Amino acid sequence: MPEPQQLSQRTPESSDRQVVVVTGGSRGIGAHLVRAFADAGHAVELCARDGDRARSLAAELVAAGHDVVGATLDVTNAAAVDAYVRDVVERRGRIDVLVNNAGLIEPPSTLWDADVETWERVLRVNVLGPFLVSRAVAPHLLAAGGGRVINLNSGAGTRSAPDQSAYHAGKTALARITGGLHLAGREHGLRAFDLAPGVVVTDMTTAMPQDEGRTEWTDPADVTTLALALASGELDAWSGRLVRAGVDTVASLQARAAEGLGEHERTIGLLPYGPDDPLG
């Protein structure tokens, strides 16, 4: 792991305005998140493979009075990720929140009919990408006394499927990245969350055969409200766990946390066959 650059410690006076990095922020859920963080007064760094689109969105928001920068980034390129994070830190002085949003899904196919290159690409973007960006950002969060990582996950990560094995495997793996960040970083102020957005109308979801004819969609505001609350620290009790937009609310999550959360609640693990299961 690279040595963290020494950054200024966060203070209560400066914590309301955060530096937020959003990957895959040029369209879809990512663009909704960028707009929400910008509207809330945060400094936003959005990146995407489509750099022109990222810069166009940033320019639109800057014209509206927001502090937003757009850039090109392939999250699967380790050297590019490291250089991008260094650039953000040099310009901003710190990073407070990372939102790993960039992701792909493959066309439905049984595993034995799956295209190898497509399968690998989905895993690279959905797993290697969040790993590389988190690996580059985490030292800066730790050096500054803590921070938060929000991984855009899915209910697909909690179960198997007959026709999209790459996406489901990738989201399960992403939860392990979240859990690893939480366990290794919690004593140092680092918090990590899985945020499942439900099914939001985007270019990706409207092109998916399984969503053809769907009439119930998740309101993007439900996603952004939870993301802002996670970033603010209001829901730190849920670090290492999954929350779901459109079902959970800030109030319901706070109330449930106040009652006490079991060690494995809202995490992915082995379900034993009974109290005498040696793997239980």
Automatic annotation (TrEMBL):
Organism of origin: Arsenicicoccus piscis
Gene3D superfamilies to which the protein is assigned, alphabetical: NAD(P)-binding Rossmann-like Domain (3.40.50.720)
Family membership noted in the UniProt record: Belongs to the short-chain dehydrogenases/reductases (SDR) family.
Record carries keyword Oxidoreductase: yes
Keywords associated with the record: Oxidoreductase
Protein name listed in UniProt: Short-chain dehydrogenase
Source taxon at top rank: Bacteria
Presence of keyword Endoplasmic reticulum: no
Record-linked PANTHER family: 5-KETO-D-GLUCONATE 5-REDUCTASE (PTHR43669), ALCOHOL DEHYDROGENASE, PUTATIVE (AFU_ORTHOLOGUE AFUA_3G03445)-RELATED (PTHR43669:SF3)
InterPro entries for the chain: NAD(P)-bd_dom_sf (IPR036291), SDR_fam (IPR002347)
